[in-house]
Every structure is written in C-alpha cells, then in structure tokens.
Amino acid sequence: MVRSTEWRYGYDLTKEIGLQSGTLYPVLMRLADKGLLESAWHESDRPGAPARHAYRLTHAGVAFASANIDATASMQGGNKPMPA
Amino acid sequence: MTRRLPRILCNVATRVLPADRRSWADGMIAELSHADDDRAALTFASGCLLAALRERARDADTHVLAALWTIAVVTAFYAVVQLICAVRGVAVLFGAHDGMLNALLRHGASSVVIANYEAARPIVVACFVALGVAQLATAWFLSRGQIRAFATAWCIALVIAGIAVAIQLSIIPNSTGVPSEFHALLMQAVAVPALLALLHRRHRHFQER
Fold first, then answer.
1. Nearest chain B CA: its distance from A9 CA (Å)
2. Which single residue of A16, B67, B104, B181 could bond B109 by disulfide (Cβ 3.0 to 4.6 Å)?
3. Measured between beta carbons, which residues in chain A are less than 8 angstroms from residue B48?
4. Which has the closest alpha carbon to A40: A3, A9, A62?
5. What is the per-residue pLDDT across B29-68, written as a single tens digit (0 to 9) for each?
6. What pLDDT, on a 0 to 100 scale, did the predictor assign at position B206?
7. Which comes out higher in pLDDT, residue A34 or B102?
8. What is the per-residue pLDDT across B71-86, written as a single tens digit (0 to 9) for each?
9. Mean pLDDT, to the nearest integer, of A38-57?
10. Which of residues 19-78 of A touch B (CB under 8 A)?
C-alpha cells in the first residue's frame, strides 16, 4: 500500500506480485470497470520502445484495498491460536 | 528464440479481446518490449492470450451472439430435415417407396384414409419444401441479428407447420405411431420464442450487473 498511488506497468506487476499475466489482466480490467483503477499511456524509458499502459489505484481503489487488507488482518488475528 | 511468437500471441489476443478492451490489448503488446528475455516474453504473451479468452468468454455481446447462433444452427438443422423429407416426398410422387403409406397400412388405415392421404401428398410435399425454406430463412436472419426479418420468417414457418399438422390431422385423426409434423410446429411455436426470451432475460441480467 506504500506505493499505491504510483503508476505501475503490467509486466512489472507480474514480476512483483508473482501473478501470471493471464490472471493479472482480468483482475486489472475488473478493477478499472468498477472505477478502482485508472490507466494512462506513458512514454517508455527505453529508446524506440512503444508507450506503456500504466495503472494505479484511484482514491476509491485505495480505500477498497485498505478495507480489504484490514478485514484480512483482523480475520487472521482472530484465527490465531490461543497461548497455552 | 526471437520475440516473433510472443508478438503473434499478443496480436491474436488483440483480435480475441472485445473491442472496448482495445487499449488493454495495445498495453499488453507494448509490455513485450520490456520483458527480461524471450522466455519471459513468451510466458507473458501466453498469459495475455489466456486473459483475452477469459474476457471474451465473459463478454455479454459474445454470449448473445453465441446463443443466437446456437438457436440458428438448431433451426437450420430442422430446416435441412424438412428439405430431406421434401426430396424424399418428391421421389415418392415419382413412384419411389412410401414409408408413410406403409405405416398407415400397418396401423390398419381404411381405404378412405389411404385415398385422402394420396390426394394430399403433393400438398404435404409442398409444405415440407415451404417449411424447410422458411426455417432456413429464420436461421439466416437470426444469425445476422435481423430480428424483424426473423420474426416474419418465423411467423411464416409457424403458419406452414400449422397447415401441415392440420392436413395430417384431417386425414389421420388418430396419428399414434405415424410420423408427424407436430414436432416442427411445437419447435416453431414454443422452443424458439422460449429460447429468445431466456436469452433476453440473461442479457438484461448481464447489463444490470
């Protein structure tokens, strides 16, 4: 969540998250459809390479992700075994 | 290995993706230039094709088109059956073996029924030809999405099937065990509108989601 407002690229995300592009892109498309993700075209830093499609979470996306992270954390906290 | 195969896969993905996802497809192709090596590019491109197929499978318009085509193919199948029956009917008119006549004789039809059947045979064959052609037209218009033309052809096919069944019932009131046009009438009257209504409901459900 630290870098949630940075623009990211599809290939880089597959490496960072460890998701295959076949799984990642449909998720990104769903998020964009729900207004949780925005996209833009950025010039590539490699000479001669085409412009890259960049993505980042919208404010609603950040709030959605934070809520999900909190919910997951509280569930994991609730499932912790009681000390003997 | 070169980047040719990954590029081909991404181009295929571009064609597979619905038109409103075009920018995503362009984004996938652009990312290929940034893959670490050829193997990574191939893995990435294969995933992009998989993503495109998933999106196509979820696309509401594709669902509608596939359903229309399914109904059209089933209708065309029935049309071909009708036309085969028509060809056999024409052969019977020119003296070939008549299975229907044999069925009537097996079921103990009277000489009056047989005489009526033989008199009505040309009209029945004409009904087969007309029904086959009308159903083919129905299937064609449905596959092209021309709903008004489809509805007209469907009504014509329904009337023809109705005439065929009326003729049969007027000749053979008790048609147990004798081949009937009733299934064609049933399909025209119930199955096609029911499938289209189901399709319309599902499409609306998709749009509301």
1. 8
2. B104
3. 21-22, 25
4. A9
5. 999 989 889 999 999 999 999 999 999 988 888 888 888 8
6. 61
7. A34
8. 889 889 989 988 998 9
9. 90
10. 20-26, 28-29, 39, 44, 46, 49-53
- Dump strand ranges (E) for B16-159: none
Q: What is the CATH number of the domain that holds A64?
A: 1.10.10.10
The domain tally of chain A equals 1
| Pick from B21, B31, B54: CB nearest A9 | B31
Q: Do residues B56 and B15 make contact, with C-beta atoms less than 8 angstroms apart? A: no
Q: Which residue of B has its CA nearest to A46?
A: B34
Is the ipTM reported for this complex over the cut 0.90?
no
A17 touches chain B (CB under 8 A): no
CA–CA separation, B42 vs B2, rounded Å? 10
Range of the domain at A14: 8-77
Q: 10 Å Cβ neighbour count for B127?
A: 26
Cβ contact, residue pair B47, A46, below 8 Å: no
Average pLDDT, chain B: 84
Query: Look-up: residue for tokens 């009277």?
Result: B110
- Going by C-beta distance under 8 Å and a sequence separation of 6 or more, which residues neighbour residue B101? B114, B117, B118
Check A10 against B43: CB less than 8 A apart.
no
Domain assignment of residue A83, yes or no:
no
Residues in chain A: 84
Residue of B nearest to A22 (CA): B47
Whole-prediction pTM value?
A: 0.62
Q: A54: helix, coil or strand? A: strand
| Residue A25 near residue B47 (C-beta atoms within 8 A) | yes
Q: What is the mean pLDDT of residues A68-83?
A: 73
Residue A2 lies in a domain: no
Amino acid at residue number B17: L
